[in-house]
Design brief:
517 residues, mainly alpha, 4-stranded antiparallel beta sheet, 4 strands, disordered N terminus, disordered C terminus, WH_DNA-bd_sf
Length: 517
């Protein structure tokens, strides 16, 4: 009886963990996250046949009987939520898993792929039921198991209460996972041998990161729950007036010559009188280190690094910075905006005015203004990309949490650490080694960009040739390594080569185009 109860529990767990769910249509209605009876029979039958405790002699009818017991004991229910009977046949009727069950739901894709062809058949495979007796039972014992499962239901529920308690991951562990994921990705993007001189783990506050990623408006701007931390209403109104000039200007209000200059000074005075820069004194070294990547061929690296770094900011700072960058970007591109200064162009005025309120050191540094100017210029030009929420971080965190739950299930008696073991500070290297690694990393990133252009099936042949030609002019050595001969180009286009090798690798001066956001 003990073996019977444990076997029922194990089979049920594997079934709930691995049974593929998808959308089905029945009687002109769509039903999500469900499966048909015949799909369940196919999947469970394959599982039992490839398990050494049952073997290939398990019949399809025996599998149907097991599924009927699942329905009777509310392991599954029909699409209308009905259960308690054994009304299940090998047909296309739809079933689903209930929200509550006699067993704990496992993470679905961590134990079994949807394709049953990948089920391992060796003795040590993932799907052997470890608590079964090592003696292979006779095949009629499966039916005997099905007839006695009701007697073990209370024992199973007690066991799963313990499992539920064991598998719960605390909020502190989740926050530590976030911290480690942030550090790993940032160090990888920057290609630094260590982050210890620019960012300490204590400076990564997971609550800020999670808030900045989840509490946003439809435009991606952080929304603050505490309105006292937000920009004053009059500042927001003035910023909106300038950002959408002249459309947002309420013509019912009296305007005068120089009105827009006064509004601009109002906004500037507010930001220049903040107690500390928007990027904070604490993160000064971090953002200064990113300045090394503000070069054309490392633009993507800089954007990805700034995406993560701006997530570290307190939510009020991130919101103010994002709104400020949106405003000055729009103003600098607005051809209808009157001159805001007699001697200085609009773009230069935006950068000179706000650079110090974005980045500066707690102790005055001679190069502060130059560093801040470069960073603000880049933030302004790429603000849409930089303030996008990097969803891959959420995926990485969720994947690690699921792997922890899987490990806890597989090794129930062991203490599983939530800390990522892969993150550690590396040894200190010489400046020469660092420069070599940085060049190697950047070249790999550029080479990957070339491969993306080659693989992009959405590009027309004409556009692909145009992009490749531009790439060839910018990075002739990397291009030549990828296409050492004109014949290799011909293979790509299945035609005679049309991209000629440049005689000189001299670069033409670049002119930044005006982009509208």
């Amino acid at each position: 009886m003990e073996r019977c109860g444990t076997g029922w529990n194990e089979v049920t767990k594997y079934f709930r963990a691995g049974m593929p769910l998808r959308k089905h249509r029945q009687r002109f209605r769509k039903h999500g996250n469900c499966f048909s009876a015949v799909e369940a029979v196919d999947w469970l039958h394959e599982l039992l046949r490839n398990n050494r405790n049952f073997g290939p002699e398990v019949t399809r009818q025996q599998t149907v009987q097991l599924l009927r017991k699942f329905l009777k004991n509310h392991v599954i229910e029909d699409i209308k939520g009905r259960w308690g009977s054994e009304n299940l046949d090998d047909n296309n009727n739809l079933f689903r898993f209930p929200s509550t069950s006699p067993v704990k739901t496992l993470q679905r894709r961590s134990l079994l792929k949807e394709n049953t062809e990948n089920i391992p058949k060796e003795e040590g495979s993932l799907f052997k039921l470890p608590h079964f007796s090592r003696r292979t039972p006779k095949k009629h014992e499966l039916l005997h198991t099905l007839e006695n499962i009701e007697n073990t239901k209370s024992e199973i529920m007690e066991e799963d209460k313990e499992n539920l308690h064991r598998k719960k991951i605390s909020q502190e562990e989740i926050e530590e996972i976030w911290r480690n994921i942030i550090l790993i990705h940032l160090q990888t993007i920057l290609g630094l041998p260590s982050l210890e001189e620019v960012l300490h783990s204590a400076q990564v506050i997971p609550q800020y990161v999670m808030y900045n990623m989840t509490n946003t408006s439809k435009h991606g701007v952080v929304v603050l729950q505490n309105k006292s931390e937000d920009l004053p209403h009059w500042v927001l109104s003035a910023m909106k007036c300038l950002a959408y000039w002249p459309r947002s200007n309420d013509m019912s209000q009296p305007t005068y010559t120089g009105f827009e200059r006064d509004v601009f000074r109002t906004v500037a005075d507010y930001f220049l009188n903040l107690p500390e820069p928007l990027l904070t004194f604490e993160y000064y070294e971090l953002f200064v280190n990113i300045l090394d990547f503000l070069r054309p061929h490392l633009e993507r690296v800089a954007i990805e690094a700034l995406q993560i770094c701006c997530l570290l900011l307190p939510p009020p700072n991130r919101r103010k910075l994002q709104l400020l960058m949106r405003m000055i970007s729009r103003i600098s591109q607005n051809v209808d905006m009157p001159r805001l200064h007699d001697a200085v162009g609009t773009r230069s005025l935006m950068i000179q005015t706000f650079s110090r309120c974005v980045l500066c050191c707690a102790e005055e540094v001679d190069l502060d203004e130059l560093l801040a100017t470069r960073l603000v210029s880049f933030l302004m030009d790429h603000q849409q990309d930089i303030f996008k929420v990097p969803t891959y971080l959420q995926v990485a965190v969720q994947d690690h949490i699921e792997s922890l739950k899987t490990a806890q299930f597989q090794y129930p008696g062991e203490e599983i650490s939530a800390i990522l073991p892969t993150y550690s500070y590396c040894r200190r290297i010489t400046p020469q080694e660092f420069d070599e690694q940085k060049v190697s990393t950047s070249q790999a990133a550029v080479a990957e960009l070339l491969e993306n252009i080659i693989r992009d099936k959405s590009l027309s042949l004409k556009d692909k040739k145009k992009k490749l030609k531009r790439f060839q002019k910018e990075y002739p050595l990397i291009y030549q390594n990828r296409f050492p001969t004109t014949e290799s180009e011909a293979i790509l286009f299945e035609n005679k080569p049309t991209i000629k090798q440049p005689m000189l690798s001299l670069k033409k001066p670049k002119f930044r185009s005006v982009r509208y956001y």
